[in-house]
Write a structure and sequence with these properties.
The protein is an alpha/beta fold. It contains 26 helices and 23 strands. The strands form five sheets. It has a seven-stranded parallel sheet. Helix 11 links the parallel strand 6 and strand 7. Helix 1 crosses helix 2, helix 9 crosses helix 10 and helix 21 runs antiparallel to helix 23. The longest helix has 20 residues. It is globular, with a radius of gyration of 29 Å. The protein binds a DNA duplex through helix 4, helix 18 and helix 25.
Length: 746
DNA sequence: CGACCAGGAAACGGC
DNA sequence: TTCCTGGTCG
């Protein structure tokens, strides 16, 4: 009896036994890759006589890391507290924290999240007098992040900048890097870039880590970026004991700088032993068939064919409605019906964009179904939380300009934009920290006497808290801070949301306490540790295996990566959402959309529902929409009876708001389907009418009054795909039939 | 300075 | 629909 090797299938065992050298595990969805990684980890410990810290295992989320550690502990019977099982970012942070002097940073550096970075960009653009109505901080930061993902320096970026926007971005990028350094701050990318620099500049340190990490494993390799590849390359350059696990079909983070090429490049450059895992332990065969049909349209992918011993399976439930509100309600009703068979926690509802969650949320509320939303407005992005966190940051690092700017007038101390800039200039000229500048605000011209008093007091408070950073427990630290700045009074009276906001602050204090008492309590934790932990925190990390409250999970498809649920609803399976309209003009992005849909489908274990709506509210306008083209790639026999719900009593609306109006009113249902098409191609309507889908087969020529002539490409029970001569491929539902005519072939 | 309002832009996904 | 910015006024 060998707990490490028994119970693995042949391929899984092969991956585990391939201990030395380079290994590429092509792990299809649900093929037990976590199992492979954890068992391989345990196997290496045992067979290679390694200690926990001798293997570096990189995961995609903190949640995955936690689960793996737990399973490794169970397998080996040893504590994993010293094991390096972490995300790339957390690994990088660890290296920097141990050696901050090598990059000229003090030990109390801070980490900025994407929001902070955007704030800095705004501040820089103000300083550089860049017109912020023409150039937006969002796209500029996006470009800078992509540059950093690809390890392009400001200098290189500037050199290649051709267009005006690129030149502007180059100047912001340069200043952005300066600003980070001035603030002793690092952004997410730096958590990878700095370790790379540290390793390159300090061969001894690299050697130290190569001695430490004799073996390396990387999960979700298809979603790594160039910097991460570089990091790996350095770490394994000596012994080349590297095992990467990935699935090119599940690469969905190209927009975040992930480079699907990495997995192909690894195969080329490292000549690894390739182990494909194709047996799926999650879904029914029917769900896999649907998934395979979606993804096998992508050219150049590594050919895989998922299979399972769970033959058959329930068909895919299709839900079609006229309105999003109906769609959400039918989903809620279906969830209710399912409660006889499934717990709420076994059910998930996915959507493409966060904005779709609101309607779903309202439907769940109305149906009295407990739910939990992941993502969206995140806890740590709330104003009240960011305020308190900014205070803590400024105390930790009194040179943090971003934090100072945020809190100097919260609560109001009579310092506006002008006074704020003066204080920053004063601090910079005198070479003192912002906390010191508070205490000397009397010397800054133009600050009101009353303000000076308040700022002096504030400086005193922050200074004293800084002195006691290491002494006070994190919980007491936060409590004292909130007390001394009278934040409760301020936030409760902020506006009508004040009381809720105060509750969030209390929640923050609770999570500090939880942090303090979690994990290894023998190690003394400080508030600095807490701040670092929340910066790398992902919403999905909070999803517990046994959520005490029995809640349905609502999340984006991106958030669903790596998860599984017995019942999955994919909502908003509409053209423009999935595939998203912003991807329409890029073949690469369209492929990523397809993979995203594939990821959604493969999350389901037993039962899958897909829903789409004939119209959607976009910025308050009711817009007619078509079903997603992806639906047509799934053979019709895999779909269950379609559930159409189009006539419902009008929703009660808040007075004065009115009911949404079609901006392009659809014609009467008889002539026009719920899905209307732009375009006006005339043409006589000759030919024979079509009354049922079964009258059409691929190759048939048809004519539509608006779209003209076209060729039928595929027909399923509910949907058909027609290639129009002038308008290209279109997907349409059954209610199109009445307007179609069968015509003679050309 | 800061409260308030109007007008315009916007939200694809997130460590 | 919601969010943000820029302008005005007390």
């Amino acid at each position: 009896m060998d707990p490490i090797l028994d119970g693995l299938n042949e391929k899984q065992r092969e991956a585990v036994l391939a201990a030395d050298g380079s290994v590429l595990v092509l792990a299809g969805a649900g093929s037990g890759k976590t199992r492979v990684i954890t068992h391989r980890f345990a196997y290496l410990i045992r067979e290679k006589n390694l200690k926990m810290e001798n293997i570096l295992a990189v995961t995609f989320t903190n949640k995955a890391a936690g689960e793996m550690k737990e399973r490794i502990a169970r397998l080996t019977g040893e504590s994993t507290s010293r094991a390096w099982v972490r995300t790339f970012h957390a690994t990088g942070l660890m290296i920097i924290r141990r050696n901050p002097e090598t990059i000229g940073y003090p030990h109390n550096f801070v980490i900025y999240d994407a929001d902070d970075s955007k704030d800095i960009a705004g501040s820089i653009m103000h300083d550089l007098k860049i017109n912020t109505t023409v150039y937006k901080t969002g796209p500029i930061m996006h470009a800078i992040f992509r540059a950093k993902d690809n390890m392009i320096t400001p200098g290189e970026y500037e050199k290649d900048a051709a267009t005006e926007i690129e030149k502007v971005t180059a100047s912001v990028y340069r200043e952005y890097e300066n600003r980070l350094r001035e603030n002793f701050a690092l952004d997410f990318n730096d958590l990878l870039l700095m370790p790379i620099r540290i390793f390159r500049d300090n061969p001894r340190l690299l050697e130290y880590y190569q001695d430490l990490w004799r073996y390396m494993m990387i999960d979700e390799f298809q979603d790594t970026n160039i910097a991460q590849f570089q990091f790996m390359k350095l770490v394994v350059s000596r012994d080349r004991h590297i095992c990467v696990v990935g699935d090119d079909d599940q690469s969905i983070y190209g927009w975040r700088g992930a480079n699907i090429e990495n997995i192909y490049k690894f195969k080329r450059d490292y000549s690894p032993a390739v182990v494909p895992l194709e047996q799926n332990y999650r879904s029914t065969q029917l769900i896999l068939d649907a998934a395979n049909n979606v993804v096998n349209k992508i050219p150049g992918r590594m050919e895989k064919r998922l299979w399972t011993s769970r033959s058959g399976g329930e068909k895919i439930g299709l839900i079609e409605t006229m309105r999003e509100t109906d769609e959400a309600r039918v989903i809620a009703e279906t969830v209710r019906e399912l409660s006889a068979k499934y717990k709420n926690s076994e059910i998930a509802i996915f959507y493409r964009t966060n904005s779709q969650s609101r309607v779903l949320e309202e439907a769940m509320l109305r149906a009295n179904i407990p739910y939990r939303i992941f993502g969206g407005q995140k806890f740590y992005e709330r104003k009240e939380i960011k305020d308190v966190v900014a205070y803590i940051r400024l105390i930790i690092n009194p040179f943090d300009r971003q934090a100072f700017e945020r809190i100097v007038n919260i609560p109001a101390r009579g310092v506006g934009n002008v006074g704020r800039q003066k204080m920053i200039a004063y601090a910079k000229e005198s070479g003192i920290s912002y906390v010191e500048s508070l205490m000397k605000s009397g010397e800054v011209s133009g600050i009101q006497r009353e303000s000076v008093r308040k700022l002096n007091d504030l400086g005193q408070v922050l200074f004293e808290l800084n002195q006691s950073l290491e002494q006070i427990t994190p919980t007491n630290f936060v409590k004292i801070l909130i007390d001394s700045i009278e934040y409760k009074k301020y936030i409760r009276e902020f506006d009508e949301t004040g009381p809720d906001r105060w509750e969030n602050v209390e929640e923050l204090v609770n999570s500090v306490k939880e942090f303090e008492e979690s994990g290894d309590t023998s190690e003394k934790k400080t508030i600095v540790d807490f701040i670092n932990s929340i910066t790398l925190h992902a919403d999905i990390d909070d999803l517990k295996e046994e959520e005490e409250r029995e809640t349905v999970s609502l999340m984006t498809i991106h958030n669903a990566k790596g998860l599984e649920f017995p019942v999955v609803f994919i909502s908003g399976v509409n053209d423009g959402l999935i595939p998203h309209s912003n991807s329409r003009h890029s073949p690469e992005q369209m492929e990523e959309e397809r993979r995203l849909f594939y990821v959604a489908v493969t999350r389901a274990k037993d039962k899958l529902y897909m829903s789409f709506s004939g119209s959607r509210l976009v910025y308050g306008d009711l817009i007619p929409t078509k079903p997603s083209v992806f639906l047509l790639d799934i053979p019709s026999e895999l779909y269950d009876e379609i559930r159409t719900h189009s006539t419902y009593e009008p929703q009660r609306r808040t007075p004065g708001k009115g009911v949404g109006k079609f901006t392009n009113p659809p014609a009467a249902p008889k002539e026009e389907p719920a899905y209307t098409y732009e375009g006006k191609v005339g043409g006589a309507e000759k030919g024979s009418s079509v009354s049922g889908m079964d009258e059409l087969k691929p190759g048939d020529r048809v004519r539509h009054p608006n779209l003209g002539a076209g060729t039928v490409k595929s027909v399923s029970a509910k949907l058909m795909q027609i290639e129009f001569d002038n308008w290209g491929l279109r997907a349409m539902g059954g209610n199109f039939l009445s307007s179609l005519r069968k015509i003679e072939a050309k």
